[in-house]
Design brief:
The complex is a heterodimer of chains A (about 180) and B (about 190). Chain A is about 30% helix and about 20% strand. Chain A has about 180 residues and is an alpha+beta fold. Chain A has four helices and seven strands; from the N terminus they run ααααβββββββ. In chain A, a hairpin with an 8-residue loop joins β1 (about 105-115) and β2 (about 120-125). By secondary structure, chain B is an alpha+beta fold. Chain B is built from four helices and nine strands, in the order αααβββαββββββ. Chain B has helices at about 5-25, 40-60, 60-65, 95-105, and strands spanning about 70, 75, 90, 110-120, 125-130, 140-145, 150-155, 160-165, 180-194. In chain B, the strands form three sheets. Chain B has a five-stranded mixed sheet with strand order 3-5-4-9-6. In chain B, strands 1-2 form a two-stranded antiparallel ribbon. The longest helix of chain B is centred in the N-terminal third of the chain and has 21 residues, at about 40-60. Classes of the chains: A alpha+beta (about 180), B alpha+beta (about 190).
Chain lengths: ~180, ~190
């Protein structure tokens, strides 16, 4: 086959070089995939949502010596977008209060619980006249316990944190969504 | 052209490339926040919810009521659903603590156990048992103290007229360690995804 004294036929060369090129191309395509766990953009949303939920449930709305037991007056004023002097948080928009970058992140804070006899939880609302928690659809609702824009319906884009807290003698759940 | 002396050289070169790739794979990994059934974020939420639930129950007195929810005549907790033990299996108790647990964790795919660990001889009793926890279970604990003057509770949540110092059958659940304090209990809530 070959005229010189090399111990290699053309077929040998074809097999060898094609195998080598296949492996080379595979390695070059595979390398960027190795780095994909490290550049997820959801990591900063996860950190932000946990930080906001911990701040709210153990610091801003509750006394830090009794975590998860929310002060009813300060909580209602927080969702009414006021900042009375006796409460430990300062006023401002949600993004200012939690040091969230407005250009890249949005926050939504909601309190949900069981306000009626039916099972399942619904968004809660504060009734000023009778000082109790009702659900948002109720006609006695004065201050809906919800702040921030509506989260996107696409679940992949947002990160949610939940905390079980005590509000007005009732156990409710605080949801913080960041997207 | 002597671009390649032997076919074997090409094969060995390709194998070296693959080996170095496998070696480089050691430095990368699935991070704790990658999407999977054992997601770290979900475990953190479960731990925080369980911790908040215990604090809330302790604030409202529902936790102590759950520990003292004892049926003295039947020698087990009220409406116990366990056939050979004294606690609850597969369903939460009918007190306020059970309702709070049900509200937070009664979702498909989440199971929880509640255990009382007491200091006398380092024993523990299973209050609510729903199986063996998975490897990715999280726990939250809360310490409460029982004194000899505490009263037991009836099945409807009202206080019974029996004090702990007179409740002799309660020792089969949690013994009296003498002195002024009846016992110190650590309530442990273990939550995991099925």
């Amino acid at each position: 086959m070959s005229t010189d004294s090399r111990g290699q036929t053309t077929l040998d060369f074809t097999i060898g070089i094609s195998f080598f090129l296949l492996v080379l191309i595979f390695v070059f395509i595979f390398i960027p995939g190795l780095l994909s766990p490290f550049d997820q953009s959801n990591q900063e949303n996860t950190v932000a949502t946990n930080r906001i939920a911990d701040q709210l449930s153990t610091g801003m709305l509750a006394d830090s010596s009794a975590p998860y037991a929310l002060d009813t007056y300060c909580t209602v004023q927080f969702f009414n977008e006021n900042a009375p002097s006796k409460c430990t948080y300062v006023g401002g928009t949600l993004e200012e209060q939690f040091s969230v970058d407005v250009t890249s992140q949005n926050v939504n804070v909601t309190i949900r619980g069981n306000a009626n006899t039916a099972a399942g939880e619904e968004s809660l609302c504060w009734d000023n006249s009778t000082s109790r928690l009702v659900d948002v659809g109720n006609s006695d609702c004065n201050v809906p316990l919800q702040r921030g824009n509506n989260p996107p319906p696409d679940n992949d884009a947002s990160v949610t944190a939940q905390r079980a807290v005590l509000l007005n003698g009732q156990d409710v759940t605080l949801y913080v969504v960041v997207w | 052209m002597r671009g390649q002396a032997h076919t074997l050289e090409a094969v060995v070169a390709a194998l070296i490339l693959l080996t170095s790739l496998v070696f480089a794979l050691q430095l990368t990994a699935v991070t704790p926040l990658s999407a999977s059934t054992s997601s770290q974020h979900i475990e953190n939420q479960q731990r925080a919810t369980a911790s908040g639930l215990l604090s809330t129950a302790a604030e409202t007195g529902a936790l102590k009521e759950a520990v003292l929810y004892w049926n003295e005549s039947a020698e087990q907790f009220h409406n116990s659903s366990s056939t050979e033990g004294i606690g609850y299996v597969d369903s939460p108790p009918t007190n306020r603590f059970g309702q709070m647990l049900e509200r937070s964790f009664d979702q498909p795919g989440i199971a929880y156990n509640v255990r009382f660990d007491y200091s006398y001889r380092n024993r523990s009793i299973e209050y609510i048992y729903n199986g063996v926890p998975s490897d990715n279970a999280v726990t939250a604990t809360y310490m409460i103290t029982l004194t000899d003057g505490d009263y037991l509770y009836n099945a409807d949540g009202s206080r019974a007229n029996i004090q702990l110092r007179d409740a002799t059958n309660y020792s089969s659940a949690i013994p009296d360690q003498g002195a002024n304090v009846y016992n110190t209990i650590r309530v442990e809530v273990i939550v995991w995804r099925i």
